[in-house]
Amino acid sequence: MSFLPSKYAPEGISMKDSSRTITIDRRPSQGQISKPTPVSPINTDTDIEMVSIDEDEEERTISQVLTEIRGTKVDSDEMEIDVFETAPPFTTVGITSSNLSYLIVDTNFMLAHLSVINKLMELAADYQLRIIIPVAVMRELDGLKSSSRVLESTGGKSIGSLARWANNWIYSVLAKNNLYVRGQKQRQKLNSIHLNNDDSILDCCLYFHENNPTSIIVLLSNDKNLCAKALSNSVLTISYQNELTPELIASTILQESIQRFGENTDISSGASTNLRVPLSAMNSVIHSNKNNATLSIDIPETIANEVLILLKSVIKHCLEKEYGNELDLVRGLDMDSIETIHDCTMTMIRFWIPVFSGYFKRSNVLPFERQDNSKHNSYNNKVPTHTNTPNSKHEAIEFIEFWNDILTILYSQIMTEKQNEDLLLLHNRWQNLIS
């Protein structure tokens, strides 16, 4: 097994390498994360086997096969990658860019350690990870589907079988719009000329490195030469070793991010107001009675607080679009006095005709109920609804769906594409908290 530069490798580590690599301590220590249980394959129409190849010779064979097909300039737009192009961009709600890490996966890692990639996908929410599959990797996997080279440590499976399983896994997660795995889009590259696959994968790393300056970018690869290129361009690398677990990989990357950028788990709506939510909130427990009707006390409050933050932010954007940045001069408006969801709704009612009615022209959902069931636009006939923190699971479901509809209507017309993506992920998170 070849090692990346590390202070625990036989050849040691230079001062230059020590400043830009992630070093994972392979020595056993008390409390070290144990090896994970075997990963179950995801449900697809085609069976996907989650093998993991730990033999040096087998990994060398895979690297050898890839070396044979690399070196030719093949980075063109000929391959159909519709799933890549139609999949929505990443969402980053729940974390700021300073703690978000991108994992760029090389072909050899996909072939030899698909189970590790699958587990990292499952850990992505807790460890703030996003997994990127480069276009070049898809092309290589497609080209390897017919390979008959047999790997003994897999029970006689061929490289072609591994490539087909990896391909099926990728298309399965992308087709389902998985929140944590994306394919590199054709426009997500720095170099527009045709590159060989090695350089194309490196270019993918550099694109995300340049466009996400406060994020950790990590190349997962067993290709020593490609890793060397990545390291020389300040991209961190991890090669598989028997002692590595997905949990150890994920936690090490997160700690590296915290060490570089500081620990920051704010939820940002894109405005100046942020809401702090700890990582442990993703693991909140719903305590239920036999009718599954009672939620633990912190979950409804967490959801309601997040709705409040988003509402206040989008209301401010709508008002600024109408009145400009001098909201302090607008009669009857005091943004600092908006402290509850009820306050948010009353602000929308107060400025309904000049500002907010236009956003809801084609909507059957309104942020209030009309007392007389008429379409009359008087101030007095509008009554705020769903403004209290829910007390039961049923109320929480109604609360989430109501405010998600209201926020979606406003966000789609006033907020950026990224902020709309953030809202989608946060809605999914709310649903998971009460499910």
Automatic annotation (TrEMBL):
Stored InterPro entries: PIN-like_dom_sf, PIN_dom, SWT1_C, SWT1_Regulator
Q: Which CDD domains match?
A: PIN_Swt1-like
Where found, per UniProt? Nucleus
GO function terms (MF aspect) = RNA nuclease activity
The record ties this protein, via SUPFAM superfamilies, to:
PIN domain-like
Keyword hit for Ligase: no
Q: Which UniProt keywords apply?
A: Nucleus, Transcription
Q: Which domain of life is it from?
A: Eukaryota
GO CC terms for this protein?
nucleus
Gene3D superfamilies for the chain: 5'-nuclease
Q: Which PANTHER family match?
A: TRANSCRIPTIONAL PROTEIN SWT1
What protein does this entry describe?
Transcriptional protein SWT1
Q: Which family does it belong to?
A: Belongs to the SWT1 family.
Residues in PIN domain copies = 101-228
**Which Pfam families did the record assign?**
PIN_4, SWT1_3rd
Predominant place of localization = nucleus
